[in-house]
Amino acid sequence: MLSLIVFLPALVAVALCAVPARAGTTVFASAWLGTGLVQLGLIAGVWSGLPASGYGFVERYAWIPSAGVSYHLGVDGLSLPLLALTAIVFTATAVYTLRGTDRPKGFVLLFLALQAVSAGLFVALDLILFFLFFDLSIVFMYFVIAGWGTGAPARRAALTFFLYTFLGSLALLLGFILLALAGAPPTFDIPALVEQNPLAGGGGYGALTLLAIGIGLAVKTPLFPFHTWLPPAHTEAPAAGSAILAAILLKMGTYGFVRIAMPLLPASWRQFALVAVILGVISVLWGALVALAQTDLKRMIAYTSINHMGYVLLGLGAAGLITADDEQARQLATAGATYQMVSHGLITAALFLLAGSLHERGHTYDMTAYGGLATRTPRFAGLFAVAAFASLGLPGFSGFIAEFQIFAGALGAVPVATVVAVTGVLLTAALFLLAMGRMLSGEVRVPDTPGTPRPFPDLDVRELLAIGALLVLATVLGLLPRVLLDVIEPAARTLGELVTR
Amino acid sequence: MDMTINSDPSALIPEIALLLGAVTGLLLGAWTPRRRQWTIRVLAALACTVGLAATAVAATRPVDVVFGTYVLDTATHATRAIVLVATLLLLALCGDTVAGHRRETEFVVLVQLGALGSMLLGGAADLILLFAAFLLASVPLYALAGWAKQGTAPEAALKYYLAGALAGVTTVAGVTLLFGTAGATGYDAVADGIASGPGGAAAVGLIAVLVGLAFKAGAVPAHFWVPDVADGTPPAVAAVITTLPKIGALVATYRLLDTAVPADVVDWPLIVAILAAVSMTLGNLAAFAQTSVLRLLGYSTISQVGYLLMALAVAGRAPLAQPALLFYLAAYAITNIAAFAVVAATGQRTLAGHRGLFHRDPPLAIALVVALLGLVGTPPTAVFLGKLVVFTATVDGGLVWLVALAVVNTVASLFYYLRWIAPAFGEPGPDHERPVTRARGWARGTALGAAALSLLLGLGGGVVLNTVG
């Protein structure tokens, strides 16, 4: 079942190879959309059959037995929400892509490949399998940015992206090797390592391992100071690429923390949790402050991603510092962090798609070039306002639930850090209100070439559908959090037990 | 000690098949009209196939020593298999270059003799045989480097020959010293002799032999000929010279270090680790500024040897060291041939010449990506798995710093491989710099086949590692 979910997009991609490139966007994007819907259906099946504890739908086959590597898949409450998020965001992106793209065949093939590796990463229960999907996501995203961005800056941004995240991935690999060799016998199997807990004592070896894995995941997350690849990559990528990059690929980093760093290196995680907290808080503030200073809409959204990922690290770090008897707080912090991953995925994907629509019409991301869009393009303005409010964590949206849980969980253990991080919410509120004020209100102003005003139509039905669906989900999760929390909480509790042992 | 020496020639069918293929090819070639000399290539391929079949049969038998000097163990079987598969690929790759050429037979025969030398290096368990194999793996390739007889080929051949002559003299001096210290040439006896003899002389002798073998492997400190030869010869020749001798040389070095020289007499793990570190770093740094793809690949092979030497540095100290070396060698051979095959297929020697390759020939461009990202070590290619096991073995052997350096180097290498990949997927250049597309079916086919093989070996690596592990 899980293999089918993972490899379905890849199979469709292989089949689409046979379709001639001149078939046009509609054919390719529809095939992609269909794949996404089928994948969603399958995931719904998995969702309904998820066991109350442990991994469900486990598949395991020998792959490289002499090195302790196996093909091992499975889902639990931490991975299933992200698997579902993957299918949802990719499907929304497929709908968005229906409106047309340059060289649709290659574009859709790359995204189908990305969809397969993203889904694979979230269900991988073997470190090498995880690494394989992690690395392939970098390769495919490189081609998305280099091939569908614009000109030389895009190629430079793609190179930066590749070099940075690849360095991260190799640090990760080094950490995985250290982890595997600690096991007796050496193994890359995640559940086996969880059970053995070979580095329960922490120490220098554990610290080195956590350092390598931490750097690898921090680059991908991205956490201050490893974030510098992110703004150019986002700015230069096509809208669909930015949406996937922010919504899914960044989660590979944070997911790595809950799946690998915390349960496999509990002692070292507790020892260095304060570092995670501090880096998280710096990312929160740094991301928000730098975002505040941007006039480029896409860069601004990119920096808010760093801010939002900072909250996740705050929660996870706090979970390592909370004393063993306060299980409730730890579960709150971890569940909140996971909730934030899903919530940020939905909202930021919507924001990037909106930015893409704006660029499509105005050919610039410069916010000062726009004004009064609320009257000119009410649909765009409405959705943008909803997305902005969702992103700044207004009650009623998923982001609020997530951030509230993180803060509530972390407050007891790291009060100062939490209070400082809360100011990050204020900053994001300020920057989104500022952006809305600039672009949506006031006199109508759209960029155009001198003498020939460009048509500036409102969002069409495909854009409306894609972005709207993401925001509706963000609202549903904000109003009915139990839908997701019921799945996350048991797994968060298990994770808490693993971290404190 | 077992006094009866096994001298059953049937144990050497793969070697004999290559030799017979070469000799018959040479004789037949002299009588065959030029346009029908492809039969010699078919003959050579046949010899390789026979060799592969014999290797498969031999691999099922227990470890044995023939003629007292040649070991038949997993390492030898793997060397045979890798060399033979590589030779088959190389014979296919050279199709466009040599077909109907005046010296087609010579090319094929020289490749076979070089392959034979490489194979013998892998199995040698005696210093004298080691040197003989060294010569056999060298001399045919000197001639091959000068095979094209035009442009920069004679210069490359001369440089290669001079470097080789120097390396040969160094090797034989080292062999003499080791023999003098140990009083024997068989590896087991050498190990006993060195342990009781003067350590200093043994160290000097070992270093001299290592320098010679480093020449064969294209590693620091005897690497300087690699880029010149890679760039000065046709891609098909460059592929042979950067692939075949490395296989035997590295296995020979592994065997020498692991069985003949106790690490407590000479601290070779450190020496090899330093050579590995310098090789990978120097190869990578030098590759950065290259605009010729062949020079770039030349430097890239130097850095690849650095990664391979990591497995040697932990020989005998990590159970994965030998399987890691053998697997990485197989992965490297296939991937390296794929990269050279792409160059041979496009006929372009510069990075700029590959601009827009994807628009002209998508499958070939994808083969290029698989080959280059394979050399970087991106999953799921074979070299990734090779790197994984080599890194694991090296960490296991206690050389974490070396792995950290290799990781940094891998990232650095990405930079120049991407300098090649990025333009290949960019827009084709303006017309005047648009490269001519020539039909080079053999090279193109080899590129696609080798790239596919590299992916297959990566995904099915478990089976292979199990057999060599």
Automatic annotation (TrEMBL), chain A:
One GO cellular component term noted in the UniProt record for this chain? membrane
Membrane disposition: Multi-pass membrane protein
The signal peptide annotation in the UniProt record is 1-23
Principal location class: membrane
Chain ranges of the NADH:quinone oxidoreductase/Mrp antiporter transmembrane domain: 124-428
**Subcellular location(s) of the protein:** Endomembrane system; Membrane
- GO BP field: ATP synthesis coupled electron transport; electron transport coupled proton transport
Pfam families under this entry? Answer: Proton_antipo_M
GO MF entries: NADH dehydrogenase (ubiquinone) activity; NADH dehydrogenase activity; ubiquinone binding
Q: Which UniProt keywords apply?
A: Membrane, Oxidoreductase, Signal, Transmembrane, Transmembrane helix
Which EC number applies? 1.6.5.11
TM helices/strands, residue ranges: 78-98, 107-125, 131-149, 161-182, 202-219, 239-260, 272-293, 300-322, 342-359, 380-401, 407-435, 464-485
Q: Which domain of life is it from?
A: Bacteria
Q: What class of enzyme is it?
A: oxidoreductase
UniProt lists the family membership as follows: Belongs to the complex I subunit 4 family.
Mind telling me what this protein is named?
NADH-quinone oxidoreductase subunit M
Q: Which organism is it from?
A: Pseudonocardia autotrophica (Amycolata autotrophica)
Q: What is the lineage of its organism?
A: Bacteria, Bacillati, Actinomycetota, Actinomycetes, Pseudonocardiales
UniProtKB/TrEMBL annotation, chain B:
Give any Pfam family that matches: Proton_antipo_M
Topological type in the membrane: Multi-pass membrane protein
Q: Which GO terms describe its biological process?
A: ATP synthesis coupled electron transport
Q: What class of enzyme is it?
A: translocase
Q: Which reaction does it catalyse?
A: a quinone + NADH + 5 H(+)(in) = a quinol + NAD(+) + 4 H(+)(out)
Give UniProt keywords alphabetically. Cell membrane, Membrane, NAD, Oxidoreductase, Quinone, Translocase, Transmembrane, Transmembrane helix, Transport
Q: Which GO terms describe its molecular function?
A: NADH dehydrogenase (quinone) (non-electrogenic) activity; NADH dehydrogenase (ubiquinone) activity; quinone binding
Annotated GO CC locations: endomembrane system; plasma membrane
Q: Does the keyword Cell membrane apply?
A: yes
According to its UniProt record, the EC number is 7.1.1.-
The protein's job, in short, is: NDH-1 shuttles electrons from NADH, via FMN and iron-sulfur (Fe-S) centers, to quinones in the respiratory chain. The immediate electron acceptor for the enzyme in this species is believed to be a menaquinone. Couples the redox reaction to proton translocation (for every two electrons transferred, four hydrogen ions are translocated across the cytoplasmic membrane), and thus conserves the redox energy in a proton gradient.
The name under which this protein is listed is NADH-quinone oxidoreductase subunit N
Source organism of this protein record:
Pseudonocardia autotrophica (Amycolata autotrophica)
What's the encoding gene here? nuoN_3
